[in-house]
Design a protein that fits this description.
Layout lengths: L1 H14 L4 H12 L3 H29 L1 H26 L5 E2 L7 E2 L5 H13 L2 H16 L2 H26 L10 H23 L3
Antiparallel strand pairs: 1-2
Length: 206
């Protein structure tokens, strides 16, 4: 159980931060738009990356810096486009529809394929995912021995699933505060600025 707890805490320490992926998951949770799909894509992607790191793929990533560079610039391009799009959305207040008491959801529907594509891109076009989840977690897991590293991986996987599910479904608690177009404008501005800031950091190599 010690290995599982170590994996859980390490996984949370790496994933609980304001980033592009978390901002997107939060926004989808607030919109109540394809929440289960987004959680599944983000969590399952993390599981694949964690298992790959523990299985030794981190060595490949470490020895192929050019691959991380390619992902970095693809991530910069995607985050820039997404950030600008979010700021453009903020220029036009969204029309909200009220469903159950205390809920407010934008009436403009989102295509399932589009949401899935963004979730995949925000996960797999982030070079920090490979450096943190694959290389760092894989290295730490290796210190727990041949058997313990897989229990460590289990803890990290549970942390990822719990975090994304809690963030997405817990976002509904904030719905009453977002019952106006103005609130959604502010949210889109914040998300847009976060995306652009991360794009700049990636471009600068930080």
């Amino acid at each position: 159980m010690g290995d599982v707890a170590a994996g859980l805490l390490t996984g949370l320490s790496l994933i609980v931060a304001i980033g592009a992926q978390n901002a997107f998951v939060l926004r989808q949770g607030l919109r109540r738009s394809h929440v289960g799909l987004v959680v599944a894509i983000c969590a399952l992607s993390d599981v694949v990356l964690i298992l790959a790191g523990v299985g030794g793929i981190g060595v490949v990533v470490d020895r192929a810096p050019w691959a991380v560079e390619v992902v970095r610039w693809l991530g910069v391009a995607f985050l820039t486009v997404y950030g600008v799009g979010s700021l453009r959305r903020a220029r036009t207040p969204q029309v909200l529809t009220v469903g159950s008491p205390g809920s407010a959801v934008p009436s403009r529907p989102e295509r399932r394929v589009s949401v899935a594509a963004r979730a995949v891109a925000l996960t797999w076009l982030n070079p920090h995912v490979y450096l943190d989840t694959v290389l760092l977690l894989g290295s730490i897991a290796g210190t727990h021995g041949p058997t313990g590293r897989w229990w460590f991986a289990l803890g990290a996987c549970v942390a990822s699933l719990g975090w994304f599910a809690g963030l997405a479904y817990g976002a509904r608690l904030a719905a009453p505060r977002l019952a106006s177009p103005r609130a959604w404008q502010v949210l889109d501005v914040v998300i847009g600025l976060v995306m652009l800031a991360i794009a700049v950091r990636l471009a600068l190599g930080s």
